[in-house]
Amino acid sequence: MFRFTRSNRVILLFFVPLVALILLIYLIPIASTVYYAFRDPFAPGLSFGFENFGKIGSAIWPAIWRTVVWTLGSIIPSTILGFIAALIFQADFRGKKILMIACILSYTIPLVIVAMAWMLMYQQHFGLINVLLQKWSVIDSPISFLSYDNALAAVIVARIWRAMPFAFITYYAALSSLSDELYEAAEVDGANEMQKLFRITIPQLRSVTSVVMIILTMWTFLVFDIIFAMTGGGPVDATRILPILIYNELFAMNDIGTASALSVISIAVLLILSSIYWKLFNEGDLE
Amino acid sequence: MKIDSARLMKALKWILGIGIILFSVAPIYSSLLIALTPSVNVMEAQLYPKYWAFDNFSKAFRLIRPHLVNSFIYSIVTVLCTLAITIPPAYIIARYRFRFKKVLIFSILLTQMIAGIVLLPSLYQFFNRIHLINTSHGLVLTLIGLNLALTVWLLLGFFASLPREIEEAAIVEGAGFVTVLFRFVVPMAAPGIAVSAIFTFINAYNEFAAPLFLLTDAGKHPLTMRLYSFLSDVTIQWEMVGSSAIIGMIPPVLIFLFFQQYIIKGLTVGAVKS
User: Fold this and answer.
1) Phi first, then psi: what are they for A174, rounded to 5°?
2) Cis bond leading into B222, ω under 30°?
């Protein structure tokens, strides 16, 4: 029934705008990124090599390290917190719906607003965290959360706030669809809650966990807005991750070559991280 | 022993649950607290609202209104164009068999992975060359492009889950492709199309990096860029940061509350499948 015949082959024309846009927004920019990244900026004619990568030099390693810390530091807590929230919300209790909404709300708001809200939380004089900690006499003088030593952790917490709801909803849906059989069998055998959690629930959710972590990695790795709005990559270079470096190379240094080289490196790191996860989780499944 | 471990679990669940809820609402509460504080009192430590300076909101609204309008225009145009561009191909992919189908699906999904900041430097160069830089249609084209993969993916799932019988009966009756698609499929898939529209709207409304790279003219800036300028000012007016953040989160939060069931469904469909 749904086959292409000579008369209806014309409907393939509906693909034209889609393909044209993918060409315009993805293929041409990616092709030119690779082109600019490997083109030798010093040679008179067209010549290709690793000059742009050489120009970045060893400055790249701290940025890659911070990017990895930023990514893993925010997705692992987000996944764990989301999982715990999903477990808790499996039970029925009063006010469940409104509390669930409260936990998911941060998922829909712009990242710039996430940055604004956390900037307010972190302020020294009136920020909620400092006010509370001082009121409870945990600290004598306010903590400067956005100082050189604390800034990376501070932006990571803001990212966790935004990423946690995704893990929560995904786990929540997955948990509701687990079958009761294994739990009933475990109950007969006298397993306690902890045993059921670690022997049944978590192993059954392995594929969901890998999906959540891969998606959050791809989303977090490329996140630019939160750090750009909160610290601009600073103080000095404390939060300068790859996306910030790309922006700086393009607009501060006006160097499309190094910006493109960094984009190529970013894509490579992203591919490596994703494949590590696939390996980790798929190997576990084969056992 | 058994009772103890159960009780411990329960206590742990309570503590963690309350902790997670407090963590989730604290930044919004904190923004509200500062939004309600007059600018002269903004440096005071407060845990509960002491002031009720509602005029902060009207002042913030006056400052961001043109950009809120820009954001709405960009987002609505993006939603309409994205749907128009993706509905027919998504339906064809869902129903028809053809040779390069797998390659096509894979390359569409691939675009979702590399979306974002890595594209923008060359897009900036390229738009400069073809005179799309600093134009609203250049931005909207980019926003549509960034949302294509997700929309195709969501629609594909919804179309594939529809029963084929109605469409087959229509084809037997002699209905052409366009009639089948718009008279029968689109109305049946309306909830799925709504999910895609909601996600595209929220994504377009939230986008910050694309206008940052592609728009230099402040008059064309969407809301996110104007909000950012509150943070990048030399002297930051904190009560404006708070009140404009609250106003800025109202549209997506309202959409979320109104369509929460759809959104949660779309989120899990989109996420679990990919």
Assistant:
1) -65, -40
2) no
| Residues A155, A36 share a domain | no
Residue A5 lies in a domain: no
By the CB < 8 Å criterion, does A84 face chain B? Answer: yes
Residues 35-54 of A with CB under 8 A from B: 36
User: Domain range for residue A88?
Assistant: 60-286
Q: Is residue A7 domain-resident?
A: no
Rounded-to-integer distance, Cα B248 and Cα B71, Å: 10
Q: So what's the pLDDT on residue A6? A: 64
Quick check: is A198 in a domain?
A: yes
B123 and chain A: CB distance < 8 Å anywhere? yes
Complex ipTM value: 0.90
Q: Is A191 on the interface with B (CB under 8 A)?
A: no
Interface size between A and B, measured as CB pairs under 8 A: 276
Same-domain pairing of A22 and A125: no
Query: Across residues A231-259, what is the average pLDDT?
Result: 90
Task: Indicate the pLDDT class of residue B251, thresholds 50, 70 and 90.
Answer: very high
Specify whether A28 is located in the same domain as A92.
no
Contact A132, B47 (CB under 8 A): yes
**Confidence band of A252 (pLDDT split at 50, 70, 90):** confident
Across the interface, which of A211, A229, A266 has its CB nearest the CB of B231?
A: A229
- Report the range of poorest mean pLDDT among A38-47, A152-161, A256-265, B67-76: A38-47
Same-domain pairing of A171 and A109: yes
Closest to B16 (Cβ–Cβ): which among A18, A32, A84?
A84
Same domain? A137 vs A208: yes
Domain contains A180: yes
pTM: 0.90
Residues A114 and A148 in one domain: yes
User: How far apart are alpha carbons B191 and B211 in whole angstroms?
Assistant: 30
| DSSP secondary structure letters along B41-73 | GTTS--SS-----THHHHHHHHHHHHHHHHHHH
Q: pLDDT tens across B5-29, in order?
A: 778 888 888 899 999 999 999 999 9
Distance of CA B218 to the CA centre of its chain: 22
pLDDT digits (tens, 9 = 90+) for B173-193: 888 888 889 988 999 988 889
Residues in chain B: 274
Same domain as A41, residue A122: no
Residues A76 and A39 in one domain: no
| pLDDT at position A5 over 80 | no
- Count of domains for chain A: 2
Across the interface, whether the CB atoms of A36 and B13 are under 8 A apart is answered no
Which residues of chain A are within 8 Å of residue B20 when distances are taken between CB atoms? 81, 84-85, 88, 103, 164
What CATH number is attached to the domain comprising A216? 1.10.3720.10
Report the alpha-carbon distance of residue A245 to residue A60 in Å, rounded: 9
Cα angle B183-B189-B194, degrees, rounded to a multiple of 5: 115
**Contact (CB<8Å) A126/B45:** yes
Residues 6+ apart with CB under 8 A from B208: A110, A111, A112, A224, A225, A228, A229, B224, B225, B228
